[in-house]
Amino acid sequence: MKYVIPTRYKARLHQELSYPVGAEALSEGLQEVPQIANLSISFTSPSLAHPMEANSPYRVLVAEYNYQPVSLSSSKQFIEDGWYNENWGLTVFAVRRQVKSLVKTLLAQDGLPRVKNWLLAERTPIWKYGRKTCCILFNEKNKSIDVQED
């Protein structure tokens, strides 16, 4: 039986917006990554910080890693709540319904394989400190996707 990545959060959307990919497709595309059991998915709408603009690329899928080591000033409650554990997650951002089909196709063909490769990459111990992301951006003007890693 295939593992289904759990959904942590799913925002209700305005009728003009839709999610370009669902939990089943993400789970199926990422079955072989070693982090599969540690991943969770959040579905959200674009924010003021990252708006959907037709003339510039905007986020549609983000894979994220976060690890902050425990320090002398770390809260006991935060430690108990797992804030200082390694955390892996996926965030799917809503798109306009008019481009949903195109974005879904681009994610299946190129975006999800790029996220999978990012998750499969060998990591040095120093890489595993802090916050790292692999962002899939949709360029509405060019009808293409771009990838940004930090």
Structure description:
The protein is an alpha/beta fold. The protein has helices spanning 23-29, 76-80, 97-120, and strands at 7-10, 17-18, 41-44, 58-67, 87-93, 95-96, 130-139, 144-149. The strands form 2 sheets. A 6-stranded mixed beta sheet has the order 1-3-5-4-7-8, covered by helices on one side. A two-stranded antiparallel sheet has the order 2-6. A hairpin with a 4-residue loop joins strand 7 and strand 8. The longest helix has 24 residues, at 97-120.
N-to-C order of helices and strands = EEHEEHEEHEE
Biggest sheet strand order reads 1-3-5-4-7-8
* Share in β-strands: 25-35%
Termini separation: 34 Å
**What share of the residues lie within helices?**
10-25%
SS elements, strand count = 8
Largest sheet: 6 strands, mixed
The whole-angstrom Rg is: 16 Å
- By secondary-structure content and strand pairing, the structural class works out as alpha/beta
Shape: globular
Tally of alpha and pi helices: 3
Rounded average pLDDT: 89
Which regions have little confidence, pLDDT < 50, spanning 5+ residues?
A: none
Oligomer: single chain
